[in-house]
């Protein structure tokens, strides 16, 4: 049956072919007879008309890609809805453009935003009959052919044809079919497609729309696509405010974006600009005197090459891009070419204050760190011994090492020789920002590894909106974001220990003894004892309130609460409050032995200030497509993570860090913060070995957290006050809040903690007297996470001295 159907189809096809062949033969005979009987002048007209008809027929065959001979051409759908790469723009909460995401840096403009100056300059230089032709300039084509016969090559492309090349990329994105493999034919086919598409564009668009599309697509070099980006890149101006000499420079470089680039080849650019000015005079757009005076002017550039890393809040913008990956994938959106407008939560004023605070404090930290170690290498183990081959192991992870290893296989001496060979490079420097120097690869690693690092983030607790985000001390040198990196939080984790204790019915005024504790654990599958100790290694034996213990960051009492509350319950509460990272279910987690990120920690502290309600950090509020249609809007979702009473009591605990004697947050009193009718609280934290220093500060409407430490955990201060959270991380929050509170436009962040919204059943207004702690131990809240049977000091101090 199928065989019979195939035979019928073949038979039908042959029949159609015979009929077409018959018509063609009959028509050719009539045409030949008519031609032979006509006088000579009619023969010429007949030949011309025949050529035109054949050419039109040829264009039709090209357009439909007859028998796949010519390759596909842009269709009506793509012409009616042209696609082009448009940069996505990122805006701050205070409506400032803070950066872009792009592959081609292009921002479209409307016709009304383009000055007649540059429109006239373009037309007089590139297509003087633009308003008269229909996409193909026949007069220009014949003139170009005439010049070619005299050995003078010139172009004949109209603005519309150039638009076709720019927008539809006929020469690169469309094939030329089977005939394209014939030498010389390929160019004819491509040119034919340009003509066809140009005529279609003229049919569907007005001349104004064509000019607008052209100005929005054309490449001006230096990664500046479109007139708006070009004006900003070369002259720091706009298409509306451009001058004749600037317009002539930009239009002049279109002939060859490298040869006539005013920055790369200023002499060529000047000559070409003056040619364009002569064209303006020839077309009577400017007078001769204007032209002469303009030609005397030098090219005054305000060159600023934009990249994805221009603007502010660079670490934040990278985090936004990462957070939008799945959304873009699910919605078939290209972040770097779809022209989105992304409205974020960041506040440019607060961001500037945060960056200034980080820079100010980290200069001090770096100076102290350098003085602390002197010429001794700071990469050391717990016993303060330099780690052997530390730099060598880091070098093996670099691309330079891998290239050398491929070039010199089984030849480590040659690899080592080139790794230690000096060469010119730029490195980070606090005074200069970036400085030129001559270092070997090994020396550059040693130099860069001696820098201390910092992360800072500020979040509104009620909304979860991120208002400031500083990922490190210098984005160009260190792309790894310290707001998102995960390190041991030290005593800042005690927030979750005490929160779960209050969930179990404890109160701030309950008392515990600062005493020696052993906790049975398994180490490598064998029974062992974990012995937490206080920072100064002393157990006072004093009875003190939980409020005082939290304020002083007494480890032994925090561990007692953890034992009573249960480690699994504490971990569950931490996750409920906003910690996303999995936590190790060991006793040491109560003192911050399990890594978390600064972002999730600060957000979790916000849960306490937000009456126990938790939500994810918010970075983007809405997204618009290139037409201004809202395609994403953030919906506030939050849930109760802590009972209100627990959240209220923990707020009181955080405030106690400033009000209790020897509270670890009392250094905040040294900042100009307390004349704005604003309440504060906070918690410091320092991990074992002084590798990580933390501080999270809270106010009623803003929570800010800071981390300070080395790039690697083995780079740290030795034991001593210099590495404590109160000395390194807390000042960043202090400097930041000084500027925020002093700014009248940010007065919403001046506030007092409210009175209880409901009856609080447990006592929290208590100040239990107890002997003062030695000044040397102030702020020493380092947490031991070691498993040992003898790591405690002064066990005899369990006996009170009273």
UniProtKB/TrEMBL annotation:
Keywords attached to this Swiss-Prot or TrEMBL record, sorted alphabetically, are:
Carboxypeptidase, Cell membrane, Cell shape, Cell wall biogenesis/degradation, Glycosyltransferase, Hydrolase, Membrane, Multifunctional enzyme, Peptidoglycan synthesis, Protease, Transferase, Transmembrane, Transmembrane helix
Pathway where this protein functions: Cell wall biogenesis; peptidoglycan biosynthesis
Sorted alphabetically, the Gene Ontology cellular component annotations on this record are:
outer membrane-bounded periplasmic space; plasma membrane
MF terms (GO), sorted A to Z: penicillin binding; peptidoglycan glycosyltransferase activity; serine-type D-Ala-D-Ala carboxypeptidase activity
Q: Domain (Penicillin-binding protein transpeptidase): give its ranges.
A: 455-700
Please list the residue ranges annotated as the Glycosyl transferase family domain.
Answer: 96-280
Which residue ranges does UniProt annotate as crossing the membrane? 47-70
Query: What catalytic reaction does the record list?
Result: Preferential cleavage: (Ac)2-L-Lys-D-Ala-|-D-Ala. Also transpeptidation of peptidyl-alanyl moieties that are N-acyl substituents of D-alanine; [GlcNAc-(1->4)-Mur2Ac(oyl-L-Ala-gamma-D-Glu-L-Lys-D-Ala-D-Ala)](n)-di-trans,octa-cis-undecaprenyl diphosphate + beta-D-GlcNAc-(1->4)-Mur2Ac(oyl-L-Ala-gamma-D-Glu-L-Lys-D-Ala-D-Ala)-di-trans,octa-cis-undecaprenyl diphosphate = [GlcNAc-(1->4)-Mur2Ac(oyl-L-Ala-gamma-D-Glu-L-Lys-D-Ala-D-Ala)](n+1)-di-trans,octa-cis-undecaprenyl diphosphate + di-trans,octa-cis-undecaprenyl diphosphate + H(+)
Q: Which SUPFAM superfamilies match?
A: beta-lactamase/transpeptidase-like, Lysozyme-like
> Where does the record say this protein resides?
Cell membrane
GO annotation terms (biological process)? cell wall organization; peptidoglycan biosynthetic process; proteolysis; regulation of cell shape
Q: What is its main location?
A: membrane
Pfam families of this UniProt entry? Transgly, Transpeptidase
> Family, per the entry?
In the N-terminal section; belongs to the glycosyltransferase 51 family.
Q: Which PANTHER family match?
A: BINDING PROTEIN TRANSPEPTIDASE, PUTATIVE-RELATED, PENICILLIN-BINDING PROTEIN 1B
Name under which the protein is recorded? Penicillin-binding protein 1A
Q: Which organism is it from?
A: Coprobacter fastidiosus NSB1 = JCM 33896
